[in-house]
Specification:
There is one protein chain. The protein is mainly alpha-helical. It folds into two domains: 1-44, no CATH class; 46-126, no CATH class. It is built from five helices and four strands. The protein has helices at residues 6-13, 22-44, 47-68, 76-99, 110-115; strands at residues 100-103, 106-109, 120-121, 124-125. It has a two-stranded antiparallel sheet with strand order 1-2. Strands 3-4 form a two-stranded antiparallel ribbon. Strand 1 (100-103) and strand 2 form a beta hairpin. The chain starts with 5 loop residues before the first helix and ends with a strand.
Length: 126
């Protein structure tokens, strides 16, 4: 039999085990959907905004510390300590952003903030 004969091509390309089954494909789609739901939830809870704001403010504080601390003769370990505190606070800020939400009524847990009733004041919904 020739390697590229019609019978050999059909035998090679008609193998059903080489084609992923529909159920395996559905599992990967479900995993992808879960990942998208997770990132949508991060966006809904404003975790991205908190991460960006924390990074910008942290960077600004570090820049100020590296410029001002030597002027006041604060030792170098003070700058290192400040960088360490800012770095350790980052995951804590993300966890707090995930768990709590800032509403017009104040800081609420994310679950209760979603379920809060809307107030009507003067025909407007707040």
């Amino acid at each position: 039999m020739e390697p590229w004969s019609r019978e050999n091509r059909e035998r090679i390309f008609d193998r059903t085990e080489a084609i992923p089954s529909r159920s395996n494909f559905a599992v990967s789609e479900t995993g992808r959907a879960r990942a998208m739901n997770f990132f949508d939830e991060l966006k809904r809870r404003n975790v991205y905004k908190v991460a960006i704001a924390y990074a910008v403010v942290g960077w600004l504080l570090i820049q100020i510390a590296t410029q001002v601390f030597p002027f006041f003769e604060i030792p170098n370990w003070g700058v290192r300590l400040m960088v360490l505190i800012i770095a350790l606070g980052f995951p804590i800020a993300l966890l707090l952003a995930w768990a709590f939400e800032l509403t017009p009524e104040g800081i609420k847990r994310a679950e209760t903030a979603d379920e809060r009733p809307t107030k009507r004041v003067g025909g407007r919904i707040f």
